[in-house]
Amino acid sequence: MKTEPLIETEPVYDVELISISKYYGKFAAVDNFSLAVPRGSFTTLLGPSGCGKTTLLRIIAGFFEPDRGTVRIRGKDQQGVAPEKRSEGMVFQDYALFPHMNTAENLAYGLILRKLPPEERRREVQSVAETLGIEGLLKHYPSELSGGQQQRLALGRVIILKPQILLMDEPLSNLDAKLRVHVRDELKDIQKRLGITTIYVTHDQEEALSLSDCLAVMNKGRLEQLGRPEDVYMRPATSFAADFSGPANFLTINGKRCLIRPEWIEVQEADSRAAPSSLSLTGKVKSADFFGRVIRLRVEIDTAEGRGRLIAVDIPSGLPGEEPRFGTGSRVCLLVRHIWELPADERAEAT
After folding, report:
1. Domain annotation covers residue 349
2. CATH code at 166?
3. Which of 103, 194, 234, 260 is least enclosed, having the fewest CB within 10 Å?
4. What is the C-alpha separation between 301 and 308, in angstroms, rounded?
5. Confidence band of 349 (pLDDT split at 50, 70, 90)
């Protein structure tokens, strides 16, 4: 009987973490963590300092061995596989550039170790430099580069080795706020053009939401929620995920814990006729903080239990010369346009 040859299909996921745990004494830095990273995706590990995200990244890279669990890269178990033998490249927070080498030499360093011929090295260096927009800086030393240029050089030194997976540990944290936004946009564009599966670590919520295809919120070494950024933000699974993915108000409504984002609330004069809404509240503005695009009001709402509960509300800051409609001391009516009921969550810590 004639049989058809078996055709091996490539795994759907580039990285699979299966029940990973890592202990320091009795402290669980990573606790029974599982995650599957789709090929070509940009997946972000988001969480506060000490939640285990950098430890997890170093386990994937092979710098740490897990005490329990399995790491698979493209379907292959990585137990005992040294970092240099894995199909990954890692960009560190401090960039780790060689100060005595210029841009071209920094880019070529890994290719020299791989013993590529000089002409091939020059072609690769030129190609990567053009991809990253630093082709005019090949003779410059790291001390002569801006923070954004150093970040692109650090990225280039990794991608020139053509890794299947790119690991990034808070690479933008040393940049000022405006440059961080600019480089963030560049980074996303480069990742999409190259199609490299990327795992990115950050504690910056805005950074995580804007960059990611998939967002993994971590808390105390565990996976709190995994999903698309818009799902985590709009439909969080836990109070912690709700609170750490963006500004949040929590209210108990009909005995259930609910999330209300500041932008889900419309503000009107207290004596105006309220339009239909999911919920109407009245209160007094305790503070009005200017954030550029928006003004964030903190409103002490009227409750049956008495005063003291504050609700954050974002309103447009208006045009130049316009006086804010609501200032400290104003009586207002809050029209809540959307409410997200949170599932029962015994591990939630946000208040």
Report:
1. no
2. 3.40.50.300
3. 194
4. 7
5. very low
